[in-house]
Design brief:
Layout (H helix, E strand, L loop, with lengths): L7 H9 L11 H7 L9 E7 L7 E3 L2 E7 L1 H13 L4 E6 L19 H12 L4 E6 L12 E3 L2 E3 H17 L4 E4 L6 H11 L6 E8 L6 H6 L21 H12 L4 E5 L5 H11 L3 E4 L2 H12 L5 H15 L3 E3 L3 H9 L1
Parallel strand pairs: 1-3, 1-4, 1-12, 4-5, 5-8, 8-9, 9-10, 10-11, 11-12
Antiparallel strand pairs: 2-3, 6-7
Helix pairs in contact: 3-4, 5-6, 8-9, 10-11
The structure holds ligand PBG.
Catalytic activity: 2 5-aminolevulinate = porphobilinogen + 2 H2O + H(+)
EC number: 4.2.1.24
GO molecular function: porphobilinogen synthase activity
């Protein structure tokens, strides 16, 4: 047979052995039938920003459709989460600058904003989980997650305060304690402090691989710590060149008693997420950060991409990489869309 007489079809069949991978993609029903990973409302954790006082929600300039809510509106958000079948909210306080100090003492006030919001939500909507960050940055005048001496962030002194912060939050009704401070040994100390305070049921979702990242900018605006931050967080948050170190961080947090682990930021770190999910086989979460949210919203706002499609695609990508769930500012939007 001369070369010219072989049809392109014969040539493709010879190369593929007749296997045409496009066959399964030809209809919506067949694509749905063979889909490996799909997002559901149960995968979502919805971060919300709490502020003092009443009145209208305050927009966060760098995060379109995200607002700082009064305690009352947080309760409303919890009802919405329940109705949308979103399992958990993560609460972050915008602390008035007058309440910030060097040691973040407002973090230990059982009547502080997150504690009041937690109590109000747990009373009105107990079936929705509440997660609170353990870190001092919403409360310190320097914007760091720990206690400072000169230019240094002190590890052990910070852990002491963080343990007390965790207990204060758990006693207010917080279900999941999220140490996001990246101090060494904090998970073990927090677990012991919770147990000694009688809060044995409080779960720990450790921010295990939290990188020093440019993707937290809008969040720091939202909680009011951006302008205050002295220097950067590279002496405690991870170097983005590292992946083996993330395995060591996660192993350490699990050995110390973490119930769940997290990788943050999200999309640029899917390799780390996939690696930890496979390596440990424990509930592993991703945080789609404020910066990732802002990028999608900015591009969508300019008409440069379809925001709704990018939202579902990125969230599904986390699932594909092995995430048990995702903290995302898109949570209420995507849950409503999945329902519709
Ligand atoms: C506080 C904290 C941060 C985020 C969650 N908890 C900011 C930071 O570490 O500077 C970022 C969340 C986001 O960007 O959406 N330690």
């Amino acid at each position: 047979m001369s070369r010219e007489t072989v049809s392109i079809t014969d040539r493709i069949d010879a190369a593929t052995g007749g296997m045409r991978l496009r066959r399964l993609r030809q209809a919506d029903w067949s694509r749905r039938l063979v889909r490996e990973n799909a997002l559901s409302a149960a995968d979502l954790i919805w971060p919300i920003f709490v502020r003092e006082g009443g009145g209208e929600p305050q927009p966060v300039a760098s995060m379109p459709n995200v607002f700082r809510l009064s305690v009352e509106d947080c309760v409303e958000a919890a009802r919405r989460a329940r109705d949308l079948a979103i399992p958990m909210l993560a609460l972050f306080p915008y602390t008035d600058p007058s309440l910030r100090d060097e040691t973040g003492s407002e973090a230990l006030n059982p009547g502080n904003l997150v504690c009041r919001a937690t109590r109000a939500i747990k009373q009105a909507v107990p079936e929705v989980g509440i997660m609170c960050d353990v870190a001092l940055d919403p409360y310190t005048s320097h914007g760091h997650d720990g206690v400072m001496a000169g230019e240094r962030i002190l590890n052990d002194e910070s852990v002491e305060v963080l343990c007390r912060q965790a207990v204060v939050q758990a006693e207010a009704g917080c279900d999941v304690i999220g140490p996001s401070d990246m101090m060494d040994g904090r998970v073990a100390c927090i677990r012991t402090a919770l147990d000694e305070a009688g809060c044995r049921d409080a779960m720990i979702m450790a921010y295990s691989a939290k990188y020093a990242s440019a993707f937290y900018g809008p969040f720091r605006d939202a909680v009011g710590s951006g302008g205050m931050l002295k220097g950067d967080k590279r002496t405690y948050q991870m170097d983005y060149g590292n992946s083996d170190e993330a395995v060591r961080e996660a192993a350490q947090d699990l050995a110390e008693g973490a119930d769940m682990i997290m990788v943050k930021p999200g999309l640029p770190y899917l390799d780390v997420l996939a690696r930890l999910a496979r390596e440990f086989g424990v509930p592993t979460f991703a945080y789609q950060t404020s910066g990732e949210y802002a990028m999608i919203m900015a591009a969508a706002g300019n008409g440069w991409l379809d925001g709704d499609k990018a939202m579902v695609e990125t969230l599904t990508a986390y699932k594909r990489a092995g995430a048990s769930g995702i903290l995302s500012y898109f949570s209420p939007m995507v849950a409503a869309m999945l329902r519709g």
